[in-house]
User: Fold these one by one.
Assistant:
Number 1:
Amino acid sequence: MTRQQEIIHRLRLFLLGLAGFIFAGVPVELYFAEHTEQPLQFVPFVLSGLGVVAVLVALLRAGRGATRVLRAVAAVIALGGLLGMYFHLTGNLAFAREIQPNATATAVLADALRGAAPLLAPGILTIAAMLAVAGTYAEANDNYE
């Protein structure tokens, strides 16, 4: 293995390990934040579990198949994270409108951005998915000729 291949291999392990750590940590944080009141709130638990499994498969059974599975799962997780951001924003908007029905649109939007449901929190799943995909870049089994 050349020095460059060694560096790429270490970077891949770091990115996949970091993604796996995030996927494993998100459910813990959600549990302590009591993100379990409605059925829709369990979606990030499922997505995180899928992420952990996909990263482990990519690490333990490296190859084209595992890479493709990881990339597909990461796409689903990233979409789920973006949808979570949307649901957080719309929930905050609805609450702000309910509390201040006569407020201007700007005031409602400002309140929604500062609302109880953190707007960027679901984005951590999207970030972890992007890290996992980045960790599959230039895999030894890829053919770039």
Number 2:
Amino acid sequence: MSAPRCLIAGAGRVAGGFVAPLLSAAGWETLLICRNREVRDAINAGGGLWLRVTGAPDRWVGRVRAISPEDPELLAAAAGADLFATSVGPSSLAAAGRMLAPLLGERLEESSAPANVITFENHRRAPELLTLGLLEAHPQLAGEIGVRLGIGGAAVWRAVSRRAVAEDGIRFEADAVEECYVDAASLVPGVPPLDGSIPGLSPVRAFDDRIIEKLWIFNAGHAAAAYLGWHAGCRTLHEAMSRPGIRAAVSEIVAEARRAFEAYLEIYCRPVPVPSRPPGWILDRYTDPALADPVVRVAREPRRKLAADDRLIGPAIACRAAGIEPSALATAAAAALSYADPSDPQAVNLQRELELLGPAEVLSTVSTLAPQDELARLICRSYHERAAEEAAL
């Protein structure tokens, strides 16, 4: 009997540093749809990848192959797949949906068994963005979604700092956290992953609570450390968190985000979805020297991270609703707004908009905060203070 197969759109850090190892350990084959020929060749040369988890020796992950989206064999591979997934980044989900649409159509035509798609994107609207692309390319799939085709999100707690092609293949570096929750309410029951065939993917019904917790508590501090570190001239998160001033600021941001999450649970009468994670556990994950996590990786795409439902503005809005002044989160948002790394196209474009329109107008577009909103004023005040400090240097 052949091993079950998962077809993943994307061969980035999360796909290679978390999903493929998880599937391999469960006896699955992983087929990564990858446009980068160098990465494909590195994976296919050995039929797998190397994973370095902090505190453990390098580990070979087998039963992994890569395929080009233009490969004529892809359609046949999709027809025999037991599970589908994405790991492309939120901004590429619609394109991934258009690419996956004919593959999913073929799979549902060739087999009477339902299929699920998991979006490993750590984004609240990831399934929606993917679905838009799917239906644009294959409108007939609309009748299958929720019946024979499930599309659900995933909240991945592992941090994967890098992917690199080396002489002996492709290597990924990650921390040791293996926690991952999937949206059971949006997936078709009785088939992977809801059949229990992949230990490590924990199905939950109140998935939105889990993804909000991940974004607001872990990702808010993660992003803040990167933005504050970049402004201080740091190259890695470990270097940034080694500075007492930045560590203290990030600690305050995590505490504020935690209060926002607790307020959210209380307002919506939710049970606490997971055991409370000590603040020290969160901060220690940012400081792991073995990861050598570059600040530019964590800080990339500031426009997306300043969205109203994302990691900085989302908890700040929740704080305001609960009567808490989000001064620390506002400082982090201002640091994100003024992030200007020249290698990040989104950051470069954001700086152009700031020059033309000013921070209040940009926030109204990026974060949907009205200029007269008190949160917008807090962020703008911090933005101008930072600009004045940097101009005085």
Number 3:
Amino acid sequence: MNVTRRQFLSSALYSATIAPNVITSSAWAAKPSGKINLGFIGVGIMSRGHLNFFLGQEDCRVVGVAEVAKVRRDHSMDMVQGRYGSNHGCKAYDDFRELLADKSIDAVVIGTPDHWHAMSAIMAADAKKDVYCEKPLTVTVRAALETVKAARRNNIVFQVGSQQRTEFGGHFRRAVECVRNGRIGKVNKVKIGVGAPAV
């Protein structure tokens, strides 16, 4: 599958609920280049799935992985090497600020624990990197507003991951509608599953 920079950014923005409030028209006017150089900030369960996907794309290249947990960082670098070979050109970082300082990186995927989203997203925006951030955007309204300001101030493309709203044929959305409209009766019990504890 060939994906242009514009297609990548457009499809990434499709499901963003804040996109109309963040993206300026001049962000769309950026001249597309050959490949998107992509960095990952945090590589937990969701981010590893994104990493695996982007490693299979011909029009982007993973050039940096920042992760504080050595086992996750090493596993991600093994994934990169498995796809690109030993001369992969991808750098591993234990501090995401070093990744953001790399001028060759065009965009970042943020998959850190939730309480780190705002700081890394704002710093990425200030480094002029386009951003795909896992949900939730932040854990406070104030941090969300500051993140939006940073995206606007730096004229970057910013997307918040919201897979359950856009994937799986709309089943999640329809299920929520059924609950809200009383179609399944009174809800007495809800069980949820979550991933491993955040690092």
